[in-house]
Design goal:
Helix content is 35%, strand content 20%. By secondary structure, the protein is an alpha/beta fold. The strands form 2 sheets. Strands 3-2-1-4-5-6-11-9-10 form a 9-stranded mixed sheet, with helices on both faces. It has a two-stranded antiparallel ribbon with strand order 7-8. It is globular, with a radius of gyration of 18 Å. The model has no long low-confidence stretch (mean pLDDT 96). It binds beta-D-ribofuranose (BDR) and calcium ion.
């Protein structure tokens, strides 16, 4: 039986690669829909990218819905310094007549979940700020019974990438993240502890770019753009953070995680956006958040090269 997933994202270079990977694994995954959220770029830009990408990948039957245009409390802050002005580097996706859903993504997602037969569940896969997911849980709590788990890219047990303790997706909307981490549903946190180790090399990006298949070439170009950003200057590996969520769903045995209590720093102080992971936990106590801490990174990389080739 295929795992049913809903992707919530802000494409975003690594979001685009993650969606490409999911689309390449449709023998095991059923993508019910894609919702967008302001994050790496404005809501308009990331939605445009998601809309065109689904056509480009040949999955235009997957609905794309436009969600929150900024975080719950603060004004949005984008990441053009990594993902470029459009959100997907210099890559130009072809025009398409595919339409975005008319209703707000949170409504579209709630409706889709509510339409499932009793007992049927979906895995939510957020790859951007958690604004849409927090809104869903607050506005439509009754649909939680159709959520199997939330497998998200965000946070870190140790460190950050925007501030010393803040990872972008959580830092961009800490209040939303706090709602999600404490909602009581099973959560898998694919944070920087593992995603920083899962990447592609310059050489791999170049070899993907030289392939004939246009989708493979796109992935190569996107990853090459990463290497031009200030973040990856002088680095050998470009982390494809968001693709780790999809990889975990298909190969959980490549990861080691630990159940713990995770809360988000929503203060106005220097650790705003930090995922505070409590390693102390009493044995036998269950918090429902699995924080991934170790990964067989080489296997992940080989898997990506095979599926994205
Ligand atoms: C996360 O932040 C975004 O810039 C990426 O798309 C990824 O979701 C990594 O911190
Ligand atoms: Ca993202």
């Amino acid at each position: 039986m295929k795992q049913k997933i809903w992707i919530d994202c802000d494409p975003g270079i690594d979001d685009a690669v993650a969606i490409t990977l999911a689309s390449a694994c449709q023998d095991q995954l059923e993508i019910l829909g894609i919702s967008t959220v302001a994050g790496n770029q404005t809501l308009e830009r990331v939605t445009e990218n998601a809309r065109k990408l689904t056509s480009f990948l040949g999955i235009s039957q997957v609905p794309v819905a436009k969600g929150a245009n900024g975080p719950l409390v603060r004004i949005p802050k984008f990441a053009g310094y990594v993902h470029g002005k459009t959100g997907i580097g210099n890559y130009c996706l072809p025009e398409t007549d595919k339409q975005v859903e008319k209703d707000h993504a949170v409504v579209v997602l709630a409706r889709r979940l509510a339409s499932l037969p009793p007992g049927e569940k979906v895995t939510l896969v957020p790859m951007g700020p958690l604004t849409n997911i927090a809104l869903l849980l607050r506005v439509f709590p009754e649909v939680a019974e159709h959520i199997d788990k939330i497998c998200l890219m965000g946070g870190a047990a140790v460190g950050g990438n925007v501030t010393p303790t803040g990872e972008f997706n959580i830092w961009a909307d800490p209040e939303a993240a706090q709602i999600v981490f404490t909602c009581g549903l099973p959560i898998v946190m694919c944070g920087l502890d593992v995603t920083n180790l899962c990447g592609l090399t310059r050489e791999q990006a170049r070899s993907l770019k030289e392939r004939v298949n246009p989708v493979t070439r796109m992935v190569g170009e996107l990853v090459e753009f990463y290497f031009q950003s200030p973040v990856y200057q002088g680095r050998e590996l470009a982390a494809i953070h968001d693709a780790v969520t999809i990889t975990y769903l298909l190969h959980p045995d490549w990861f080691t995680g630990r159940d713990m209590r995770v809360e988000v720093d929503c203060s106005e102080e220097r650790n705003r956006g930090m995922t505070v992971c409590d390693f102390r936990g009493d044995p036998g106590e269950k918090h429902g958040v699995t924080v991934l801490l170790e990964v067989k990174a080489e296997q992940v990389r080989e898997f990506w090269m095979e599926k994205l080739w």
